[in-house]
């Protein structure tokens, strides 16, 4: 991003010997990457990626894939633009953290325990910006509380109950918005799912 290239290595990369054949790469990027249910339902509460939000508001199939591609591309372009404008030690660290967070947002599945980049991100926000130290510290404190509380776990979850979060359809994009409405909808969904064996799904275990 910053056009600072590392010196060439005299020895081959240790990953070169274990690189997958082209056929496996083509298969993964054209077919397997879309099969997110193989490691757990995309709508599950622990999935804090863009695709997870889209799945929780009811998108499925080609519509979900298309929306995911568009939003993932928008996130990637925004982060690329921002990272290239940063400079200095704090700027370099900020660019690194922005790239890591963008990867988590774009990934089909980003379980909550994958968001370890939040720790250095909050530290940088709290102590790295002297020009706006007070506002940055407040933002870091709010961010810490959000991660410590885990608002997605305050709502009914598991067994596809996340699909009832979208009281106003788009309210599931932020876990805390529309809480009373989603709780009411979730209780209705849970009462219906008792008599519907197809709605019972095992929640994914931590990976």
Explain this structure to me?
With 207 residues, this protein is mainly alpha-helical. The chain folds into 2 domains: 42-149, no CATH class; 150-199, no CATH class. Helices cover 49% and strands 0% of the residues. It has 7 helices and no strands. The protein has helices spanning 22-30, 50-56, 61-84, 88-106, 118-127, 133-149, 179-193. Residues 168-207 have low confidence and may be disordered.
Q: From the helix content, strand content and strand pairing, which structural class follows?
A: mainly alpha
Report Rg.
20 Å
Q: Which term fits the overall shape?
A: globular
Average pLDDT, to the nearest integer?
Answer: 75
Helix content: 40-55%
Number of DSSP-assigned strands: 0
Return the string of H and E elements: HHHHHHH
Given as residue ranges, the uncertain stretches (5+ residues, pLDDT < 50) are: 168-207
* Strand fraction: under 5%
What's the number of helices?
7
Whole-number count of domains: 2
How many angstroms separate the termini? 31 Å
Largest sheet: none
Descriptive keywords:
mainly alpha, 2 domains, 7 helices, globular
What's the gist of this structure?
The protein has 207 residues and is an all-alpha fold.
Q: Would you spell out the secondary-structure blueprint of this structure?
A:
Layout: H1 22-30, H2 50-56, H3 61-84, H4 88-106, H5 118-127, H6 133-149, H7 179-193
Helix pairs in contact: 2-3, 3-4, 4-5, 5-6
């Amino acid at each position: 991003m910053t056009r600072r290239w590392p010196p060439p290595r005299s020895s081959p990369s240790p990953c070169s010997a274990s690189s997958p054949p082209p056929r496996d790469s083509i298969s993964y990027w054209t077919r397997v990457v879309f099969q997110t249910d193989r490691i757990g339902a995309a709508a599950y509460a622990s999935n804090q990626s863009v695709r997870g939000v889209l799945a929780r508001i009811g998108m499925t199939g080609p519509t979900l894939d298309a929306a995911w591609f568009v939003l993932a591309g928008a996130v990637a372009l925004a982060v690329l633009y921002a990272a290239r404008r940063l400079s200095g030690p704090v700027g370099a660290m900020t660019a690194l953290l922005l790239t890591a967070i963008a990867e988590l947002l774009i990934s089909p599945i980003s379980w909550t325990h994958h968001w370890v980049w939040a720790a250095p991100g909050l530290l940088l926000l709290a102590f790295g910006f002297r020009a706006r130290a007070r506002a940055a510290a407040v933002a870091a404190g709010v961010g810490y509380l959000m991660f410590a509380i885990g608002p997605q776990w305050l709502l009914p979850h598991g067994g596809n109950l996340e699909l009832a979060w979208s009281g106003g359809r788009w309210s599931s994009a932020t876990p805390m918005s529309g809480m009373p409405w989603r709780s009411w909808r979730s209780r209705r969904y849970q009462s219906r799912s008792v008599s519907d064996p197809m709605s019972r799904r095992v929640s994914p275990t931590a990976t």
